[in-house]
Amino acid sequence: MGGLNNSVISEFVLLGLSSSLKTKICLMFIFSLLYLGIILGNLFVLFLVILDSHLHSPMYFLLANLSLIDVGLSSTTVPKMITDLLNEHKVISFQGCMAQICFIHIIGGVEMVLLIAMAFDRYTAICKPLHYLTIMNPKMCVSFVVIGWITGIVHAMSQFAFVINLPFCGPNRVDSFYCDFPRIIKLACIDGYKFQFIIAANSGFMSLGTFFLLFLSYAFILVTVWKRSKGDLSKAFVTLSAHITVVLLFFTPCMFLYVWPFPTSPLDKYLFIVDFAITPILNPAIYTLRNKDMKMAIKKLHKQQYYTSFC
User: Which of 102, 156, 208, 284 is the most exposed place for a label (fewest CB within 10 A)?
Assistant: First the structure.
């Protein structure tokens, strides 16, 4: 952590999303509701999967982990963003900024691996149904989660090791509502080109590679179903549409920010609202409202509560 001693800057100023008071009040109200929905929706999915024995399957194990990760990813930025909307001076300490960056990239790496695991789960269920439980056994599911955390930590630390030792002597104004590698590197007192390239090579390659891997897997599933069902893809589209929607929403901001080494457009901070606030609240809706097993589990839970209160 020697970079902390070499940095003159002790805090960064976050410029946020807007300077208009009316807009800030409106945004505070909207994001407060979104964050409440994220917490309640994802924790509901998590507890539903734990409580209902019919949901003790590989797909719902991965879904429960995705819900937990979505809560963590949203919590790294949204609460700070809401409180900053009320403050005139939006500051974050150097240590707080570095910690926020680390958590974002660790959790983001875990989510990418979980999305790959969920795509593999759907591939196995559709293309190899007779071997599904043998392939997607509990050990395999736990391995996916462990690999996700290892990947996230290695991914974050490999970039953090470079950034933490950069000298920051001014300016300290970040044109965003959160800290991230590309914008922080631009504030360093040295030529950050090679570090920007490292970030683009690491995060950009990981985002782009995972995105194409997922869509290749979905394309392979659709082709397999098309061959077996003589052109009828309706069942496969229904099964995969939720996954494809989540992938598009999650990876579009990531590729916009990390594939190019020097982001200059302020649009990226608005795009990342999708990752931090929109996708985490859509996941529970997508995977519950469009899933028969989840609907049955909700009805079952509702009936149990009704009979308990009646008795």
Answer: 208
